[in-house]
């Protein structure tokens, strides 16, 4: 009798339930097809897959070489040069690019004129929607020695001259170009999440602070920053986890033969090994090493964060 009553109380799925189910199923299929199935290719890192024409045959029947590829890249001088570039560039970007959206969000939060505030946010967010293929071409054009606008600007500050213009795309300046162009492209988009976190702060905290005579700077330091600290922690941990990862599109679009010694990072190195040199097994081993180091960095930084601040990703 009770079972019959329970069956009667159950509601049939309506159109909304089926819509949610279909969308969730499609999302799950995307994850399985594009994230989990490709992981089968990691087997190439343990097989003799270099210079082969049929990767499927190697996956199924290829000769196992164990950790030979891993030993090879750990002894490869070129690999360590690329690793050095990757670490240094990413550490600099962590120190500069990571706090840039936070600072920008704090400054933008102090703008009282709503139209002006929205206009600034729209203008600074727009570059994020331009692909690196196009954005990189714009940067290269701006840095051109003869027709670019950057040399006249540097000339005005005494850093260049019309007779001897600076070539900003060489190995000496490429890191500065990469970092500055990345900040310009991502600062507006990156500040959106922090603006949302700031908007969720209780206005009564600011009102109470104003009654106590607190300045706007003190409110930002002692109210705003502590309230958005959980959001900052999450993104800091994610950025530490990506310390060996770079945007392939960014570096590939700004890379040339002159700056290759400083602009070659793991993302472009793996691409070149795979599609130019056809060293599929070797490149897969490096990619797997990169992923494992990123996982260790994420877990370790999360552990330290939870011990030090009580906050973490998991």
Describe this structure in words.
- With 314 residues, this protein is an all-alpha fold.
- The chain folds into 2 domains: 12-40; 67-309, MetI-like fold (Orthogonal Bundle), CATH 1.10.3720.10.
- The chain has helices at residues 2-9, 15-36, 55-61, 68-74, 77-96, 99-109, 114-125, 132-142, 150-156, 174-199, 203-211, 216-227, 229-241, 248-254, 260-263, 266-275, 280-309.
- Helix 6 crosses helix 10.
- The longest helix has 30 residues, at 280-309.
- It is globular, with a radius of gyration of 25 Å.
Q: Topology of this protein?
A:
Elements: H1 2-9, H2 15-36, H3 55-61, H4 68-74, H5 77-96, H6 99-109, H7 114-125, H8 132-142, H9 150-156, H10 174-199, H11 203-211, H12 216-227, H13 229-241, H14 248-254, H15 260-263, H16 266-275, H17 280-309
Helix pairs in contact: 4-17, 6-10, 7-10, 8-14, 13-17, 16-17
Distance between the ends: 45 Å
Total strands: 0
Which fold does the CATH topology of the largest domain refer to?
MetI-like fold
**CATH homologous superfamily (4th level) name of the largest domain:** MetI-like
Helix-and-strand structural type: mainly alpha
Q: What's the level 1 CATH class of the largest domain?
A: Mainly Alpha
Helix content: 55-70%
C-alpha geometry: globular
- SSE pattern, N- to C-terminal: HHHHHHHHHHHHHHHHH
Report the mean per-residue pLDDT as an integer: 88
CATH-level-2 architecture of the largest domain: Orthogonal Bundle
Low-confidence parts:
none
Radius of gyration: 25 Å
What profile does the largest beta sheet have?
none
Instruction: List the total number of helices.
Output: 17
């Amino acid at each position: 009798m009770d079972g019959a009553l329970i069956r009667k109380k159950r509601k049939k799925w309506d159109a909304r339930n089926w819509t949610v189910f279909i969308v969730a199923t499609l999302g799950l299929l995307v994850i399985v097809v594009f994230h989990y199935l490709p992981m089968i290719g990691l087997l190439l890192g343990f097989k003799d897959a270099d210079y082969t024409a049929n990767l499927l045959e190697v996956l199924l029947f290829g000769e196992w070489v164990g950790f030979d590829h891993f030993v090879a890249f750990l002894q490869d001088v070129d690999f360590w040069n690329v690793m050095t570039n990757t670490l240094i560039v990413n550490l600099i970007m962590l120190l500069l690019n990571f706090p840039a959206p936070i600072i920008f969000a704090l400054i933008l939060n102090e703008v009282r004129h709503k139209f002006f505030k929205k206009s600034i946010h729209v203008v600074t967010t727009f570059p994020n929607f331009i692909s690196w293929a196009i954005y990189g071409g714009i940067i290269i054009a701006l840095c051109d020695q003869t027709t670019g606008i950057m040399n006249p600007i540097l000339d005005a500050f005494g850093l260049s001259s019309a007779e001897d213009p600076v070539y900003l795309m060489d190995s000496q300046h490429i890191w500065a170009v990469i970092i500055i162009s990345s900040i310009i492209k991502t600062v507006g988009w990156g500040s959106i999440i922090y603006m949302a976190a700031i908007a969720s702060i209780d206005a009564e905290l600011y009102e109470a602070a104003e009654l106590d005579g607190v300045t706007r700077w003190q409110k930002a330091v002692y109210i705003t920053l502590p309230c958005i600290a959980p959001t900052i922690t999450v993104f800091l941990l994610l950025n530490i986890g990506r310390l060996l990862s770079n945007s392939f599109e960014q570096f590939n679009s700004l890379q040339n033969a002159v700056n290759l010694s400083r602009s070659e990072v793991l993302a472009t190195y793996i691409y070149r090994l795979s599609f130019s040199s056809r060293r599929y097994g070797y490149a897969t081993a490096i990619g797997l090493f990169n992923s494992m180091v990123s996982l260790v960095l994420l877990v370790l930084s999360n552990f330290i964060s939870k011990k030090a601040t009580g906050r973490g990703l998991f």
